[in-house]
Amino acid sequence: MVRTASASVAAGPTLAVVAREAGVSVPTASKVVNGREDVAPETRRRVTEALDRLGYVRRPRFDAAKAPRLVDLVVHSLESSWSGAVLHGVEEAAHDAGLEVVVSAALTRSRVGRPERGWLDKLVTRGSSGVLFNLAELSDSQYAWLEQHRIPFVMIDPVREPPEGVVSVGAANWQGGLTATEHLLSLGHERIAVVAGHRRTMCSSARVAGYRSALASAGIRHRAEYLRHAGFDEGVAHRRTLELLDLPEPPTAVFVCSDRMALGVYEALAERGLRVPDDFSVVGFDDLPEARWASPALTTVRQPLSEMAATALRSLLRMMDGHHPESTRTELSTRLVERASTAAPRPA
Fold it and tell me: 20 to 30 Å CA-CA from 230: which of 4, 122, 205, 312?
């Protein structure tokens, strides 16, 4: 139970009480507390005696030079395990660097990845030294605002190709799409579909390009009807999979450009009475915890989310110290994690 009276006593007398006891103004009492010299000796004596008599606790002065530097991390959502992995990477790197991090889910629902208009103004108010944008898409005016206020920033997996000179960190998405498709080809699949994210996002476009390159290298024609966009939405991925299964010649395997969408694919296959991987093989992308929890466990392409976030923070730290990175784009490698969702196709 909270006890108001006890809390007041514990807090001690205010400076106003001390000033009244000493018969001086609050600004004069403040000068004595802060060691200012422009106070008469007799006045200083009265204030000092009042401070001691009332038990006033002198609080240490804030020293901005000694305070830890503050950076902002702007994420699209705080609800996903994708964001959790990014937060983990930033947290560890910030701890090592002695930085404080403010986390904001400051992106509008009306336009995916676009920071709210008023949010940027808060950066100056709270004295942030830099910003990490995760899955964000900034407008030209917002880029200009950051430049005008000389706030360094780094993009983690940007939605669109950022302007020239903007520093970003991502994964080797093209290589990941290639590896996922090559895995299905090695098992004997030729009718391989792809469920992609948004049509114009950097990561999704690169993964689809890798998929197409693997098919071309294997001498297999890409079928336009095997490409379906689901906007990284699990429910839409479910519908797109049903569309694929309704084709005159449906695929026997699918590369899905995110683990979350792969769960929608699983649901659609189950509705049609198809078993993974006996009847249909599935490869995801991300290697989120959901991939391990799925039944069967999902074969997927791991992108190093925590490492991407930590790399971005270290790049931001160098920029805050006045050093611009030699390369504006850093891509970390991806790798295939084989589990139980892929197998050779059924004999015709």
Answer: 312
pLDDT tens, 163-173?
999 999 999 99
Closest CA to 194 of 284, 267, 266, 112: 284
Alpha helices, DSSP H only, in 115-186? 119-126, 140-148, 173-186
Is the bond into 296 cis (omega within 30 degrees of 0)? Answer: yes
**Residue 114: phi, psi to the nearest 5?**
-100, 120
Residues 241, 233: Cα–Cα separation, whole Å: 12
CA dist 258 and 255 (Å) reads: 9
Encode pLDDT of 245-285 as tens digits.
999 999 999 999 999 999 999 999 999 999 999 999 999 99
Helix (H, G, I), strand (E, B) or coil at 97: helix
CB-count exposure of residue 75 (10 Å: 0-12, 13-18, 19+): buried
User: 143-163: b or e for each residue (b if 16 or more CB lie within 10 Å)?
Assistant: eebbeeeebbbbbbbbbeebe
CA neighbours closer than 13 Å in the CB half-sphere of residue 182: 15
Strands (E), 26-143: 70-74, 100-104, 130-134
Strands across the sheet containing 335-337:
227-229, 192-196, 253-256, 281-286, 299-302, 335-337
Gap between the Cα atoms of 154 and 168, Å rounded: 5
Are the CB atoms for 310 and 316 separated by under 8 Å?
no
* Residue type at 1 in one-letter notation: M
> In sequence order, which residues have a C-beta less than 8 Å from that of residue 100 and are 6 or more positions away?
68, 69, 70, 71, 94
Buried b (16+ CB within 10 A) or exposed e, 235-260: ebbbebbbebbeeeebbbbbbbbbbb
Tokens of 228: 């379906």
C-alpha–C-alpha distance, residues 155 and 168, integer Å:
4
* Among 257, 253, 252, residue whose Cα is nearest residue 234: 257
The Cα–Cα gap between 231 and 195 comes to 9
Find out whether 230 and 196 touch, Cβ atoms under 8 Å: yes
